[in-house]
UniProtKB/TrEMBL annotation:
Domain VOC: 2-113
InterPro entries: Glyas_Bleomycin-R_OHBP_Dase (IPR029068), Glyas_Fos-R_dOase_dom (IPR004360), VOC_core (IPR037523)
Family annotation (PROSITE patterns): VOC
Domain of life where this protein originates: Bacteria
Native source species: Croceitalea vernalis
Listed SUPFAM superfamilies: Glyoxalase/Bleomycin resistance protein/Dihydroxybiphenyl dioxygenase
Membrane-spanning parts: none
Name of the featured protein: VOC family protein
Length: 124
């Protein structure tokens, strides 16, 4: 089994398209006003947004995007107007993470974990 796609809700698909293109995702499907799909710049995983009437309440989902050059990537995104809630920092689970929200409040985590992504010291 392989993870193909993650889909997140949006109140404004067009606004979200601009945001995710700024993050570096490549738009491959634009079915406005209801849907858009992107391919990640590395690998072949896709990410999509779909129009909803209202957003879910509570914490919702967390979407992780892996970046080998995390600190440089965050710096470049900030220069392009992307605001971060948390700048890159080392976490106790041995990942380096930066956190931000998309225009609909979905939590995005840009991270680098290296070998610890699949093989942390506590792996079963």
């Amino acid at each position: 089994m392989n993870l193909n796609q993650i889909t997140v809700p949006s109140l404004d698909v067009l606004k979200s398209i601009a945001f995710y293109k700024t993050l570096g995702l490549e738009l491959i499907v634009e079915a406005l006003p209801h849907y858009a799909r992107f391919v990640c710049p590395e690998g072949n995983t896709t990410f999509s947004i779909h129009l909803v009437d209202k957003l879910i309440k509570g914490q919702g989902i967390y979407v992780y995007f892996e970046c080998e050059n995390l600190d440089e990537r965050v710096s470049d995104l900030q220069k392009n107007g992307i605001a971060f809630d948390e700048l890159p920092s080392d976490r106790s689970w041995l990942w380096r993470e930066a956190r931000l929200k998309d225009p609909d409040g979905n939590l995005l985590i840009l991270y680098f974990a290296g070998e610890n992504r699949l093989n942390p010291p506590w792996r079963i």
